[in-house]
Amino acid sequence: MDVHVTLSGRGDLAAQIYRQLLEAVLDGRLRSGERLPPTRELAGRLDVSRNTVAVAYDRLVADGFLIGRAGAGTFVSAEPVRGRAAPTGVVRPRAVWRSITGPATTGSYASGPDRPDAPYGSGARRAAYDFRVGVPDAELFPMESWRRLVSRELRRGGGGYGDPSGHEGLREAIARHIGISRSVRAGAGDVLITSGAQQALDLVGRVLIEPGAFVAVEEPGYPPARLLFRSLGARVVGVPVDGEGLDVSAIPSAARLVYVTPSHQFPLGTPMSLARRAALLAWAERRNAVVIEDDYDSEFRFGDRPLEPLQSLDRAGRVIYVGSFSKTLLPMLRLGFLVAPASLGPALRAAKRLTDWHGELPTQAALARFVDEGLLARHIRKATRVYAARHALISATLSEDDRLRLVPSAAGLHLCARLAPGVSVRQRPGLGVERLDAYCGETPVQPGLVIGYGAIQQGAIPGGLELLRRSLVVPAAPEAPRPLA
Predict the structure, then answer these.
(1) What is the dihedral of CA 57, 63, 68, 73, to 10 degrees?
(2) pLDDT tens digits for 58-77?
(3) Residue 196 is inside which H or E element, if any?
């Protein structure tokens, strides 16, 4: 163990070494069982006599914090030591962070260890019937093929800094992929690789949002985007969404940035109509505004042909197209991208460089080969069949219940159902399903459910839906007045 000790002055040097090692043990920086450097080695690094270090070690052994083993060295005592908390501090974040801290997820009808939105790696138990939103089925991912591609890139060596825009081969592969699958007009030079869609939104916000600027988002909408824009100093305003998508007539005239999910509105699932798309682009041109088009869940489609993306309809260079592989592949890969007008390219690349310079180049290179070898297209076809079956089963089951009103949807990893008037949901152990009103930043919409089907297997869906239906509560009808005697 390489222990850091700093000596100052000509005072009792052994006492200084003793105190700093003691603090390291008490704070948990030196853990039980870890080996300390030999006295001769530490003395050489500190430029003191070996006896000075030995005195400090002997005191720690006598106090029970270290233990010497003949022929093996000196170790931190095996007895557990309670770590001391770091100082609380007096520094406080900006006021906006008091309302943002905590997971940027939604509320659910589960509580405690059955919460479906517990963070990855938290150790919390997932709900037995896990209808979490936005989580793909990891078992569908071709892990062996991916491992082969990543291993190949790691064997190639290298290790220097790269282009902030990302791996050139991946940018070329993405430009071809979204050009064929989504009719997005872009070359490799228009693509910037990011750590997921959230970083893409962060980069756009850094480049475009002035403190106090108005940003329009969908209501209900995607909470992490809303919170991110607020953290950057924007005044975020929710704009209602109806059966055709964002109500363009309700966008505040002061807004200069509009965030939308037109292909598969999050969380309702309805696509934005062609008339609304045209109206939004016309509004942006009149107001000198920018539109962020988040193509959320557009890869998995089960029915209607997709409409043209805003980016391909845009003729004025006002649309920034954002995409991610978190739902298509796996969230842990943290791979996304954006396609921006050429006028924003230099600033966005500079923002990326200042943020984290660039992402993991071996992973990006592996994804480029994954796309070029046809593995991405094959995976999407396979996953779409699986998700379509789950979507159909949930839709068919819940459409038979008059306490729910399904919102039409033909894509993605979730669907939405509004509750009929007067119906409420009772919490049930083992059931993890999310609330529609938790996706609202301002005026809550009609109560409803957002039901994901990426994290639950087909065979578990009937049991989960039965538990869900038993959770729906209809208020008892009032008793008829009794006739007077």
Answers:
(1) -40
(2) 999 999 999 999 889 999 98
(3) helix 196-208
The DSSP call for residue 263 is S
Long-range contacts, 147-150 (Cβ 8 Å, 24+): 149/366, 149/367, 149/369, 149/370, 150/362, 150/363, 150/366
**206's tokens:** 């850094």
- The DSSP letter of residue 215 is E
- For residue 43, pLDDT over 60 is answered with yes
Give the separation between CA 471 and CA 99, rounded to whole angstroms: 31
pLDDT at 453: 96
Q: Which residues contact 15 (CB under 8 A, 6 or more apart)?
A: 56
Predicted pLDDT of residue 102: 60
The pTM for the full model equals 0.83
Q: What is the pLDDT of residues 256-284, one digit of tens each?
A: 999 999 999 999 999 999 999 999 999 99
Which residues does 21 contact at the CB level (< 8 Å), separation at least 6? Answer: 3, 5, 30, 36, 56, 60, 65, 66
Structure tokens at 161: 């800094």
Inter-residue contact 308 to 282 (CB < 8 Å): no
